[in-house]
Amino acid sequence: xxxxxxxxxxxxxxxxxxxxxxxxxxxxxxxxxxxxxxxxxxxxxxxxxxxxxxxxxxxxxxxxxxxxxxxxxxxxxx
Length: 78
What we know:
Largest sheet: 4 strands, antiparallel
Mean pLDDT: 78
Structural class: alpha+beta
Distance between the termini: 60 Å
Radius of gyration: 18 Å
């Protein structure tokens, strides 16, 4: 891992220092590094999954499409 700032230097030397930032309803946990704000999640078995910007962009786009679909599927009475 190449550190991009001085805040990420401890992560490059010692590894990330994760703290729990969010617990999801499907029993997965989102962890954030307190030094470099790197985000990773755990699956239901407790294994780490890396979150990258492409996945986050894809998730937000899918969420927007889902909400747009909900708005357009409402039946109009009257």
